[in-house]
Design brief:
Blueprint (H helix, E strand, L loop, with lengths): L1 H47 L5 E2 L5 E4 L6 H7 L6 E2 L5 H9 L4 E9 L4 E8 L4 E4 L14 E4 L5 E3 H7 L9 E3 L2 H4 L3 H10 L4 E5 L6 E5 L2 E6 L5 H10 L3 H4 L5 E5 L7 E4 L4 E2 L7
Parallel strand pairs: 2-5, 6-9, 9-10, 12-13
Antiparallel strand pairs: 1-3, 4-5, 6-7, 7-8, 10-11, 11-12, 13-14, 14-15
């Protein structure tokens, strides 16, 4: 019994010693891992805060995607004070600042370490129509405040903003008249239909919410209030291309398409004519 007890105590002591050694090795390994990670992080922090990782001037900023807006104008919008460490620059905050501009729909900002620089990609808002709050002929003072642009989604772009930021802006051929809030909700649909219409349309008057008025190559067209039948109205207008050959255009007051199933032509002599339209 004494021999067995002696062996058992010896085995237990060896096992305890092995466990203590194993525990020390684990602690040592963990400590080395911590030191290694801390060293790497410290090295990164040290490297990125060295003078070489600093934006010293705007020439280190690259602007991409701009066609209408001047590169220097976009750079002037960046909330950056030179010199500034790349580590302190917040790309998302810069992107939000740019997107708050009515001329920029989307922005993406990335930092580049080799060489230290900043890349800014922008998607511009493209003006598709000159927008007048009131008819331009009725405005005698501060005409620029009455004038702006709208993009395909109906976002208002002040005239002064694009004039200040753009060096390559070509004025759109299409005009829209009326306060933005009266047509913004359906502008995307109206613009899509008008831009695809085979009949040239140069002006959309949205001053009266009960009657949208178009200026077209066939004359003035009354659509009535906006409805989902807009595309049908424009299709009927296309079918009336022969109207100038049937009637004297000087005698036509307007074409009434408020009911596309029964289009009419209002004559200046208060005579209403039902034009011949080709059957589909």
């Amino acid at each position: 019994m004494t021999s067995i007890e002696s062996v058992s105590r010896s085995d237990l002591e060896q096992r305890r010693q092995m466990l203590r050694t194993h525990r020390r090795l684990k602690l040592l390994h963990a400590a080395w891992q911590t030191l290694a990670v801390s060293g790497i992080l410290g090295g990164l922090v040290w490297a990125t805060t060295r003078p070489i990782w600093v934006l010293r001037e705007s020439s280190q900023v690259t602007i991409e995607g701009n066609q209408l807006l001047a590169t220097q104008a976009i750079k002037s919008l960046l909330p950056i004070t030179y010199p500034q460490s790349l580590l302190q620059i917040q790309p998302e905050a810069i992107a939000k600042t740019l997107e708050s501009q009515p001329t920029i729909a989307d922005a993406n900002v990335t930092r580049e370490l080799f060489p230290p620089s900043l890349r800014v990609q922008v998607t511009e808002r493209i003006p598709v129509a000159i927008a007048y709050i009131r008819p331009p002929q009725t405005v005698t003072t501060d005409a620029q405040a009455n004038m702006g642009f709208v993009d395909a989604q109906g976002v208002w772009i002040p005239f002064q903003t694009y004039a200040a930021q753009s060096t390559n802006l070509k004025l759109p051929q299409l005009k829209v008249i009326g306060p933005l809030e009266r047509y913004q909700s359906y502008w995307a649909s109206v613009y899509q239909g008008v831009s695809r219409s085979p009949v040239k349309i140069t002006e959309i008057d949205c001053q009266d919410p009960t009657n949208i008025i178009l200026k077209t190559e066939l004359g003035v067209v009354h659509l009535g209030a906006y409805t989902s039948r807009l595309n049908q109205q424009l299709q009927v207008l296309d079918q009336m291309r022969q109207l100038p050959q049937q009637l004297n255009s000087n005698q036509i007051a307007y074409i009434d398409l408020s009911n596309p199933d029964a289009p009419t032509v209002q004559m200046n002599q208060v005579e209403t004519v039902k034009p011949d339209t080709p059957h589909q």
